[in-house]
Specification:
There is one protein chain. The protein is of the alpha+beta class. It folds into three domains: 100 residues, 3-Layer(aba) Sandwich (Rossmann fold), CATH 3.40.50; 70 residues, Dna Ligase, domain 1 (2-Layer Sandwich), CATH 3.30.1490.20; 241 residues, ATP-grasp fold, B domain (D-amino Acid Aminotransferase, Chain A, domain 1). It is 35% helix and 27% strand. Helix 4 runs antiparallel to helix 5, helix 7 packs across helix 8 and helix 12 runs antiparallel to helix 13. The chain is globular and about 60 Å long. It starts with a strand and ends with a helix. It binds ligand MV4. Ligand MV4 binds next to strand 6, strand 8 and strand 13.
Length: 448
């Protein structure tokens, strides 16, 4: 049983976790940086402990300070949220060592999946479809060049410790390979301190489809359907929805079975996400597995009626899943727009500052997950996402109409935001048709 939980995070996700705990009768401990003294999460928690200066490296990424706060407050569990330490195997291991429940999978499982090459091999051995590619680490360009020829061009060179687009280059022919490899490897070395690479055939014009899974410590694994996250720019997701227009019931069943198989193969426990690339012809491939609660979890919550954060906490407490696969029904359609403090007209430059005026939409089928309030000053140190606007309708058409209406109502003064940019997207014919792939926003930018 978890009685007191420390949230090793900030912003809207910290608030989201505090709310789940309050409903469950669990005491909450917030940690906050000196830049977050006025933050909502620090005010809403039962206790709040300052863990250091604004820069993340000295606060939200500092394992020792967070662990000290957990010890000091007598917390018996830590929820890492997303970002920061959420996928750090060393932190999960430290929790284990200190006798604190980490709300997530155990360290070894996290590290196996964190290495995209070993994750690929785990999935391939279990019979989960993976993209044709290397089954060994690639450390030098010459070896890679031979592998690429065997795989077939175009290829994509990825960092084993990467994910999210860093340390990644495509090569369209053998002439391009050498430079692409060295560039990707150098970037990987800089970002992750490791130049281990792997190579895959480059899949053109796919959708990004991810499956939410829940796994308890008794070997029960279920999937909660998919999220279509194809609307993104520079590997930053902008709009996510569930269900995906690209999935028939039978494809959903097959991809869902593959997702469950993937989680079982990894000996996964807690909430997790299996990312797939889906080709237009219906072929799908495992890409990576995320071992955290994700930003876009609310769309799944809305179509399934399942509270994912509560399930995470129940699973971490050692409870077994009460939901059976046949009980999971996807009802209606949900869409999420990420609202960022940034200026789309200035290359999406982040725009911290003070919110002078604020109106957020509401009503039937509208949910806003945020930590902002009038007079709040957004600090410059963290991610620019300040709110998530989630809508639910009986079908995609109604959900899109609701998103158009809700975005049109938002007033955030004092800072620049991407609200108008999001409004334009959801009013585009191509977006409304639902016929898009991961190139949608890049296409847009070339047009305008
Ligand atoms: C790919 C791919 C095509 N083929 N792998 C981007 C981030 C990282 N998670 C993997 N990514 C991709 N891997 C193969 N073999 C295309 C991408 C990709 C992408 C994937 C999902 C959503 C948006 C994307 C944007 C550009 C590239």
């Amino acid at each position: 049983m978890i009685q007191k939980l420390l949230i090793a995070n900030r912003g809207e996700i910290a608030v989201r976790i505090i709310r789940a705990c309050r409903e469950m009768g669990i005491e909450t401990v917030a940690v906050y940086s000196e830049a977050d003294k006025e933050s909502l999460h620090a005010q809403l928690a039962d206790e709040a402990i300052c863990i250091g200066p604004g820069p993340s490296s000295e606060s939200y990424l500092n394992m020792e300070r967070i662990m000290s706060a957990a010890m000091l407050s007598g917390a018996d569990a830590i929820h890492p949220g997303f970002g920061f330490l959420s996928e750090n195997g060393k932190f999960a291991a430290l929790c284990e060592k200190c006798g604190i429940t980490f709300v997530g999978p155990d360290a070894a499982v996290m590290e196996n999946l964190g290495n995209k090459q070993t994750a690929r091999n785990t999935m391939a051995s279990a019979g989960v479809p993976v993209i044709p590619g290397t089954d060994h680490p690639v450390l030098d360009a010459e070896r890679g060049r031979a592998d690429a020829l065997e795989i077939g061009y175009p290829v994509i060179i990825k960092a084993a410790l990467g994910g999210g687009g860093k340390g990644m280059r495509t090569a369209w022919n053998p002439q391009e390979f050498h430079l692409a490899f060295l560039t990707a490897q150098k970037e990987a070395q800089m970002a992750f301190g490791d130049g281990t690479m792997y190579i895959e055939h480059y899949v053109e014009h796919p959708r990004h489809i991810e499956f939410q899974i829940l796994a308890d410590s008794f070997g029960n694994v279920i999937h909660l359907g998919e999220r279509d996250c194809s609307i993104q720019r520079n590997h930053q997701k902008m709009i996510e929805e569930s269900p995906s227009k690209a999935l028939s019931d039978s494809l959903r069943e097959r991809m869902g079975e593959a997702a469950v198989k993937a989680a079982k193969a990894a000996h996964y426990v807690n909430a997790g996400t299996i990312e797939f690339l889906l080709e237009k012809n219906g072929h799908f491939y495992f890409m990576e597995m995320n071992t955290r609660i994700q930003v876009e979890h609310p769309v799944t919550e809305w179509v399934t009626g399942i509270d994912l954060v509560k399930e995470q906490i129940r699973i971490a407490s050692g409870e077994s899943l009460e939901i059976k696969q046949e009980d999971v029904k996807l009802l209606g359609h949900a869409i999420e727009c990420r609202i960022n403090a940034e200026n789309p007209k200035k290359h999406f430059r982040p725009c911290p500052g003070t919110i002078t005026e604020l109106h957020l939409p509401g009503g039937k089928g509208i949910r806003v997950d945020t930590d902002i309030y009038p007079g709040y000053t957004i600090p410059p140190y963290y991610d620019s996402m300040i709110a998530k606007l989630i809508v639910h309708g009986k079908n995609r058409e109604e959900a899109v109409a609701k998103m158009q209406s809700a975005l049109g109502e938002v007033i955030i003064e004092g800072i620049d935001t991407n609200v108008d940019y999001q409004f334009e997207i959801v009013n585009e014919a191509r977006y409304k048709s639902g016929d898009f792939d991961i190139g949608f926003l890049e296409m847009q930018e070339r047009d305008s």
